[in-house]
Write a structure and sequence with these properties.
heterodimer; A: mainly alpha; 2 domains; 18 helices; 3 strands; B: alpha+beta; Penicillin-binding protein 2a (Domain 2); Beta-lactamase; seven-stranded mixed β-sheet; five-stranded antiparallel β-sheet
Chain lengths: ~425, ~625
């Protein structure tokens, strides 16, 4: 038994490794297409983006080996320290950070830039797993809920200060909490808030507020009709409902118009169809949709995408990488990528559910939820159903930090998974 | 397992929603995606050279010349010696700044035209010093050139295609040139050739990144075809020379082919006015001149009462309908009385009072009474006036009157040949031959264009048939084969009836109204005309000086040329139109002018004071009625 444990590849779920390899490989092919120019012919041209990405991919192999080499128990034991360290790196940005593309979320070492927020997700997931895997931990107790929220929102808040878009990802952890017994009310409440928020933007305060009042009134009358003494016990609840809904709608309206910046508001308006400007505000979204559409069923073929080759879609090698898939590989290629991601997510959840100890399971859920959220936000943006939020597509987008961050995230789970049958 | 349901469910839901959206974009929406029509592909046109135009003797009428546009890429402009640059371009500094700002507003990184169509000398200077002015460039452009400053109405002009046409016809891009009048418009598709297209890949900054699909969709330009006109440029120029100071038109046809030898309208303009930098101010001036109407082709579009030459047609119909013959005679008492009231009397100036007149002298002396009688007999031959009128109308129309002739120029008019229905509408069925007796002498309702009259003359010269007049002889050195120009059209008159008419017309030049301009040794056959005309100004109908008309062909046997001359307000046909006809025929048949005194006299004939008086009179009436 001991010997087996020394073999770093023992117990590894090769299917997950296969999915990972396929995604990273296909991702690189598309980065190559996006950053390819006629002048360059060499694959190992490290000044080009695809050359650099290849380097990142090659360097991720020793990282993977290192992750697999370390005993699973290590990750659980030191997760709190990792978490605190990653918080410190996020705080450090305020002093040592370098600004790239308007966000001060990078550390620069010579020619290499690292984005600590890409790693913070992993450590938050580990910290959350550690907290909730305690035998005495019970999520139905409010104090415990708050503890979990703190772990989630602390890094999210630090990240939001530089890059609000990336912070959204932390909402993914609610799936983890839900799995571990947090009442669904939180998610329903969250979803309802989003619906109300969007409805307020579209229809305006007056319409939504009055229709909400009508709904509450109907509910109250119905309750009185059923139980004549309803108001006697519940009048406070009804009043609170009125007040809260008014407050929520007014603040949604206020924050949309005053707290959100112009460009953020524009992104909403593009998706909600409130603006038809495709030259300035809606340019990215419009170009991305056109590029994907032009791929048709079979795609134009590798390096044949004229829109991709003409660099019509901004940030096409990073956030908009999926539009390359759409143009050059068509409906076939792009839906295959989505199915591949779905398969990866299914597999993670499936494996996580098999864990005997809670730590591995919770972490696994964290991994799946984060990847899932990235998928929704990124592809939703590229295919024009969600507003523009600049976050990468896992394993696909160009960038060392993001690739390493996701590699770390996934392979720690693979390692935990490999050792799941041992009781630590 | 139960707890994992939510995540499984959401992953599946979102996954399939995304695939559905991709299906919508790529399969449903993508099907109408055209690979060439994307913003990632830039089309560059390879402009063909427009075809040349020659006259029937191979003389060059329309050629191409290079013109130079100065272009600018505002982003690439470095600080420059503005003063020197402005003096090179001959523009003011304010103008320079204005143009620069305009280019910058258009797009600072794109090339746009800074100054159009530089003069050749300016170009030479500028080219030497261009290296000093970064960001400026010279772009060659082909424009038209007219070596012979004549026939503007025939040749037409080209100018930038208007937005409407550019939108409707996807061949043209905004700013390209298209034929707007004359040959340039009529034969646009032949002259323009075919643009070549080159497709390039481009990036979002409009920068070219190389050929698209290695030139799979590219095509090369096909140059326009050369056209040889039927025009004899010497004759054309001579006609224009004679028409100085007069309004009207000269049409010369070759009866044996229908080829238009000359198509003169006056006043006209130098075709070079519609080329180059001055085109737009010039065109405003030319098109806006509503008094002289230099852009209006009087030979093709002007409709006038034909006057006496129309008597020939009536005589022919009379012979054909057997209501008269060569020996039929009528007595003229200084006119023809068509009604009992005092004013129902048509005067005649034939000066053969009280003696019987036969066809021959009726034509040579242009006797109104004779043709009024003939006309009456034609109309009254049938059981009622309407069918008689219709029969007459059919005969007349067989000469190409009353409808578009079908020549290959974009302008024209139907003229008017009334029929029974026309008068039924006009007089509510209460009319007879006397009602419209003026038609007998080419007044009344009858209207023709000069080219229609020339065609009637050609038909008489041919003794009963004509070829539709046309202006193009060869395309790319291949004679035209269009059957509408190569197959003769027959009139409804038998060949035998023409000789008596021609005999009478011969008398016109031998002893009749035009005998003073007869050419020694050439048998000219013709008919003078003096047509009354009126102008309506408000409610008033004012009488204007008569139009001077003459139709003729020569020689009598084996005719080489048929001419119709129309001089607005020129007075008697014999005084202005006749000498011009005679000179035109002499010029064409002998290549020179021996009778300098006639030429001199014609050049001195300046009708502009008459026209001026007219305009003033009209203006006075207009202001008076107001």
């Amino acid at each position: 038994m001991r010997q087996e444990q020394n073999n770093i590849f023992f117990g590894i779920d090769w299917l997950l490794v296969l999915f990972f390899t396929l995604l990273v490989g296909f991702g690189w092919i598309n980065i190559y297409a996006a950053s390819y120019t006629d002048e360059t012919i060499q694959v190992f041209d490290f000044s080009s983006k695809y050359g650099k990405q290849l380097l990142w991919i090659l360097f991720s192999i020793p990282l993977i080996i290192l992750i697999l080499f370390i005993n699973a128990k290590f990750y659980q034991r030191f997760s709190s320290i990792f978490f605190i360290l990653s918080l410190l790196t996020l705080i450090g940005l305020f002093i040592f950070g370098t600004e790239i593309n308007g966000a001060r979320s990078w550390y620069r070492f010579g020619g290499v830039s690292l984005q600590p927020s890409e790693f913070a997700k992993t450590f938050t997931a580990l910290a959350l797993a550690k907290l909730m895997s305690d035998r005495k931990y019970n999520l139905s107790i409010l104090k415990n809920q708050i503890k979990a929220f703190i772990i989630i929102f602390l890094p999210a808040l630090l990240i939001a200060l530089h890059d609000p878009g990336s912070a959204i990802i932390y909402l993914a952890f609610f799936f983890v909490l839900n799995r571990e017994g947090l009442t669904l009310a939180y998610i329903i409440f969250g979803a309802l808030s989003i619906v109300l928020f969007i409805a307020t933007i579209i229809a305006g305060v007056k319409v939504i507020m009055s229709s909400l009042y009508i709904l509450i009134t109907i509910y109250s009358i119905y309750s009185i009709y059923r139980n004549k003494r309803f108001l006697k016990f519940n009048w406070l609840k009804v009043v609170a409902l009125y007040l809260f809904s008014s407050f929520f709608i007014l603040s949604a309206d206020y924050s949309y118009n005053n707290i959100l910046k112009k460009h953020q508001r524009d992104r909403f308006e593009v998706i909600l169809g409130k603006t038809s400007d495709t030259k300035q505000i809606g340019y990215n979204s419009d170009q991305s949709i056109q590029t994907i559409s032009s791929g048709k069923f079979w795609g134009k073929g590798f390096l044949e995408g004229d829109k991709t080759q003409g660099n019509f879609v901004p940030a096409q090698d990073t956030d908009y990488i999926f539009s390359v898939v759409g143009e050059e590989w068509g409906f076939v290629g792009s839906s295959l990528v989505i199915f591949l991601f779905m398969a990866l997510l299914y597999r993670i959840i499936y494996r996580a559910e098999k864990h005997a100890n809670k730590f591995g399971r919770i972490y696994g859920y964290g991994v799946a939820s984060i990847l899932f959220f990235h998928l929704i936000v990124n592809i939703g943006m590229v295919i024009g159903v969600l507003p523009t939020v600049g976050i990468p597509l896992p394993f696909f987008s160009y960038g060392g930090s993001s690739l390493w961050g996701f590699t770390l995230l996934l392979f720690i789970f693979i390692k935990l998974d490999a050792q799941k049958s041992y009781d630590w | 397992m139960k707890r994992s349901f939510l995540l499984y469910f959401l992953i599946t839901l979102i996954g399939f929603l995304f695939v559905g959206r991709l299906f919508q974009l790529q399969v449903i929406k993508g099907s109408d995606y055209n690979p060439v029509k994307t913003s990632a592909v830039k089309v560059k046109f390879d402009m063909p050279e427009r075809g040349y135009v020659y006259d029937r003797n191979g003389e060059l009428l329309v050629a191409n010349q290079l013109s130079y546009d100065v272009t600018i890429v505002p982003n690439e402009v470095t600080p420059l010696d503005t003063l020197e640059f402005c003096s090179l371009l001959k523009i003011s500094k304010e103008n320079f700044i204005k143009r620069f700002k305009k280019a910058e507003n258009y797009a600072p990184w794109l090339e746009s035209v800074f100054l159009k169509q530089l003069a050749k000398e300016d170009f030479a200077y500028l080219q030497e010093k261009l290296h000093k002015f970064q960001g400026f460039n010279i772009q060659k452009r082909v424009i038209r050139n007219y070596p012979i400053k004549s026939a503007a109405n025939v040749l037409g002009y080209i100018s930038e295609v208007n937005e409407l046409v550019a939108k409707k016809d996807n061949y043209y891009q905004q700013g390209e040139l298209i034929g707007k009048a004359g040959i340039e418009a009529q034969y646009e598709k032949i002259l323009r050739g075919k643009k070549g297209k080159k497709y390039f890949r481009r990036d979002r900054f409009n920068k070219i990144k190389g050929p698209f699909k290695n030139g799979l969709y590219d095509s090369t330009a096909v140059n326009g075809k050369d056209i040889m006109l039927t025009i004899d440029s010497k004759l054309q120029q001579y006609g224009e020379y004679l028409m100085k100071g007069k309004r009207g038109g000269i049409i010369a046809l070759e009866p044996s082919s229908g080829e238009i030898l000359a198509l003169v309208t006056s006043p006209s303009y130098d075709p070079n006015m519609m080329v180059g930098r001055l085109r737009s101010p010039n065109s405003v001036k030319l098109i806006g001149d509503s008094i002289n109407k230099p852009m209006y082709d009087r030979g093709l579009k002007g409709t006038y009462p034909p006057g006496s030459p129309f008597k020939l047609v009536n005589a022919l119909i009379g012979l054909q309908e057997n209501v008269i013959d060569e020996n039929t005679h009528f007595v003229c008492n200084g006119g023809y009385r068509y009604g009992n009231r005092k004013n129902e009397f048509m005067k005649c100036h034939c000066d053969i009072y009280g003696k019987p007149i036969q066809l021959n002298s009726a034509i040579s002396k242009s006797c109104n009474s004779y043709f009024a009688n003939t006309y009456k007999r034609i109309i009254e031959k049938n059981k009622n006036s309407k069918s008689g009128m219709n029969n007459w109308s059919t005969h007349v129309k067989s000469f190409g009157l009353g409808n578009y002739l079908g020549y290959d120029l974009p302008e024209g008019d139907k003229g008017l040949i009334p029929d029974g229905d026309y008068y039924n509408r006009m007089y509510r069925y209460k009319w007879n031959a006397s009602t419209n007796i003026s038609n007998a002498i080419g007044q009344g309702e009858v209207l023709t264009t000069p080219i229609q009259l020339a065609n009637v003359t050609a038909a008489i010269a041919n003794r009963g048939f004509f070829y539709t007049p046309h202006i193009v002889k060869k395309i790319n050195n291949q004679a035209i084969t269009d059957s509408s120009y190569t197959i003769p059209k027959h009139t409804t008159i038998d060949k035998k009836h023409f000789d008596p008419i021609i005999q009478g017309m011969h008398e016109v030049f031998k002893t009749g109204t035009a005998s003073w301009v007869n050419i020694e040794g050439v048998d000219i056959v013709g008919k003078t005309g003096t047509s009354e005309n009126f102008m309506r100004v408000g409610r008033k109908k004012i009488k204007l000086p008569d139009h001077s008309i003459l139709v003729a062909f020569a020689p009598k046997n084996n005719p080489k040329i048929a001419v119709a001359v129309f001089i607005e307000n020129g007075g008697f046909g014999s005084t202005v139109a006749a000498p011009i006809t005679s000179l035109m025929i002499e010029k064409y048949l002998t290549g020179m002018i021996n009778r300098k005194w006639i030429e001199e006299r014609m050049l001195k004939t300046d009708l502009s004071p008459i026209y001026e008086r007219q305009t003033i009179a009209i203006k006075q009436i207009e202001t008076g009625t107001k």
